[in-house]
Design brief:
D-Maltodextrin-Binding Protein, domain 2, 11 helices, 8-stranded mixed beta sheet, 2 domains, 5-stranded mixed beta sheet, binds magnesium ion, Fructose-1,6-Bisphosphatase, Chain A, domain 1, alpha+beta, 15 strands, single chain, binds 2,5-anhydro-1,6-di-O-phosphono-D-mannitol
Amino acid sequence: MRDTTHFIRAKRYSTTERERKRKREKDAREKRTKETRQTRQTREREGECRTRKMIERLEEEFSDPALIRLMEKIASACTEISDAIRVQAIDDSKGGTGSLSGRANSTNIQGEEQMKLDIYSHDVFEKACRESNACIGLISEEVEEYIDLRGVEQGEQQQLAPSSSDQQHKGHGLGEEKKYIVAFDPLDGSSNVAYGVSVGSIFSVFEYNKTTAKNDGEGNTRSPIEEVLKPQTGRNVMCAGYCVYGSSTDLVIATRKNTRVVGWTLDPFSKTYVKTRANISIPMRGKIYSINEGYEHKFSEGMKKYIRDCKDSPTMMARYVGSMVADVHRTLLAGGTFHYPLGKLRMLYECFPMALVIEVAGGISISDTGSNTLDSAVASIHERGAIHLGSKENMDDLKKCLGL
Ligand code: AHM
Ligand code: MG
């Protein structure tokens, strides 16, 4: 008889091996499913956390639910922009088609070259403001015309699914009157991104008050854009702020009503803005002056004298990042002065918001002629102006030099 013991043993062995393999695969599959489920649950929990308290203790600063919603949306837009800035070089090095690095091969209304990130940031900001259902119109550095949102009041607004954060606030925009106009520079200093230098977003919020808009003196009602551009426009900014994408992402908001400047720092893990500075006041005197001295030959004699005095002073130092948000943020926290006398910076979404932040924090912001920045009249939405801002005592020194 043929000896089949070896064959049977081999068969038994391979059956056991196959079973083991099958079990190994099943275990791995179950492990993967469990991990995926856990990841999804964690993300969902993080998401809930994000919408539940995207900005810590925001309600201490604002009472209007529409404004709270708008600020939450702006904060989340800033998170998105912050993330995009930090990964764009990585995406680009991998040759991704959706890469956000470099030039967009287009120019904005001021004839300045746009970066892909400028356009991306504008889109993110515009979407956020639209989704807040709180805005009647928008003004952006990257778009020539005023963006009128009145037309979508009934149609598009009804179709927008309210987010979970919307649902927490009663009256999530449906039937609620839209009354805010946001002017923004979605990505200030964007040419610095290529070198890993701090950049930022700046915004100011105007309120369109139908009652005051009616009182134009001639029985007409001013349109939202006329209301934004009426005399002493800067005094109509009800709140303003910026987000600096630096070694940390910091959101700073000034409210005229509360006369308070508050700072939040983004926790990159929970994507929550943690209130880190409850009431910022600018030091009375600082040791830093900040200006692009490369243009000194174009400056007034008074400005040249101020720079000379700073250089002669044993305590003064110069710092200039070349991103307004970063230079103003440092000026706000450390004191001193920031200047752009040549009138490059735009009034509605660069000068006014920074002037409000500095003024509410106890500092001063003026034009070249010494008038308070917020008292300036603005005739068009992209109008530019000269600006000097900073600590009271340093600004007094400057005013003396300028003969004011
Ligand atoms: P941008 O809005 O096109 O980025 O330009 C504004 C920036 C400010 O952030 C900064 O203060 C200024 O331009 C720097 O200009 P300069 O390079 O002339 O010093
Ligand atoms: Mg800018």
